[in-house]
């Protein structure tokens, strides 16, 4: 397909839906803008399932909302007023985009909580996303309510049954229900919350269900995990990025006057002041804890034996410990494992932080990939680009990184 034809096809949802899957053919690796992104998201979730044109419009709309392409979603709605459901909001990992959150690998639990005045919140709990609270109307994340302010709504408090009202028949549903999606949670007013390992969404019915399984249902093809824009590896580390990966409360930022006076490496000092350092990190059996605190970091001195500033400690599991330090002048990161001699662990502190952040950013995709995603391969490539040492198990540093990376490239979310 010629580039101009590709752009024109995906720019107009009406043209795309009218053309149908037969007009798509073999798609080139890139091109198509936000419409291609929305299409790629839709077919990734459908995973080859056959649906009608109207129902595919619902999935195209879903893809646009997942990606934040709200203007494109509006074009889809205008092009397909007969679509059977629409996405109200979604907190969902896009296909081909490696992001720390949402990561609902290991399963998620969704509840509706109500206040005495009738206000409602959606509560989400997941192993790696923690506890999150959402405004059910907008999807805005809100602080956890005070204890006793909201109580869990009984599942059967809403008269409509999600399975019956949304899908008609669990055995032979009129609408496609992805196998990965958990049981729908009724919110009332024709709205339902769905969750799976890649995210949570609230959807609502737009009209009557088809009389039976979708007439004219066809497969809308497949697309690679195509995603536009620079990869996070190509963008600077900043406070927001570290907060997303590690959690705002688990990032230590220190003004220059609160950093160790002995730390002379300017890029490291700037990183600590602007972006910060992770206080805590965990994957598989390994954990890392920062040695510095807001109150005491300025008093940290180089150790007498090696002249290195202590930074933190890895508990590598099975009585295996790695003490991490930074060279005060070069910024290089060193490790002492189980009382041995120091060895180079990362070229600088920024690389060290980027590697830990990359594990979190690829974690959900490695454990819960979309069809066609090669997250494990892409993670190893990114780690190698950040620091070749990290993927060289013949070096002491690479041997430790291999152990840390195994949590996502070799093991499941359950650790085996």
From TrEMBL:
<dbReference type="InterPro" id="IPR025851">
    <property type="entry name" value="SUKH-4"/>
</dbReference>
<dbReference type="Pfam" id="PF14435">
    <property type="entry name" value="SUKH-4"/>
</dbReference>
<protein>
    <submittedName>
        <fullName>SUKH-4 family immunity protein</fullName>
    </submittedName>
</protein>
């Amino acid at each position: 397909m010629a580039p101009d034809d590709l752009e024109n096809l995906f720019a107009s949802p009406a043209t795309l839906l009218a053309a149908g899957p037969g007009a798509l053919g073999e798609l080139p690796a890139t091109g198509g803008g936000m419409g291609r992104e929305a299409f790629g998201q839709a077919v990734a979730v459908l995973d080859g399932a056959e649906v009608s044109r109207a129902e595919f419009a619902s999935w195209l709309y879903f893809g646009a909302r997942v990606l934040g392409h709200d203007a494109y979603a509006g074009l889809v709605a205008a092009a397909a007023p007969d679509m059977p459901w629409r996405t109200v909001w979604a907190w969902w990992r896009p296909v081909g985009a490696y992001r720390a959150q949402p990561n609902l690998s290991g399963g998620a639990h969704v509840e509706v909580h109500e206040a005495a005045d009738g206000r409602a919140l959606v509560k989400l709990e997941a192993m790696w996303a923690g506890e999150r609270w959402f405004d059910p109307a907008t999807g805005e994340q809100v602080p956890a309510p005070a204890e006793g302010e909201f109580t869990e709504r009984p599942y059967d408090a809403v008269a409509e049954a999600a399975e019956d009202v949304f899908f008609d028949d669990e055995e032979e549903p009129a609408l496609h229900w992805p196998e990965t999606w958990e049981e729908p949670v009724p919110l009332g007013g024709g709205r339902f919350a769905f969750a799976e390992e890649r995210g949570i969404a609230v959807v609502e019915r737009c009209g009557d269900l088809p009389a039976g399984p979708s007439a004219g249902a066809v497969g809308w093809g497949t697309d690679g995990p195509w995603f536009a824009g620079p990869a996070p590896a190509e963008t600077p580390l900043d406070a927001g990025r570290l907060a997303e990966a590690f959690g705002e409360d688990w990032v230590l930022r220190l003004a220059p006057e609160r950093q160790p006076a002995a730390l002379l490496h300017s890029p490291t000092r700037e990183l600590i002041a602007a972006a910060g350092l992770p206080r805590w990190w965990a994957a598989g059996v390994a954990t890392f804890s920062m040695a510095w605190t807001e109150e005491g970091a300025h008093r940290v001195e180089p150790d007498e034996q090696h002249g290195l500033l202590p930074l933190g400690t890895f508990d590598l599991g099975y009585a295996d410990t790695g003490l991490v330090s930074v060279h005060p002048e070069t910024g290089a990161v060193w490790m002492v494992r189980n009382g041995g001699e120091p060895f180079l662990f990362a070229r600088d502190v920024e690389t060290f932080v980027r590697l830990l952040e990359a594990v979190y950013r690829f974690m959900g995709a490695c454990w819960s990939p979309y069809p066609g995603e090669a997250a494990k391969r892409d993670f190893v490539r990114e780690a190698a680009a950040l620091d070749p040492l990290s993927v060289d198990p013949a070096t002491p540093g690479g041997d430790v990184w291999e152990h840390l990376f195994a949590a996502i490239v070799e093991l499941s979310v359950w650790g085996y």
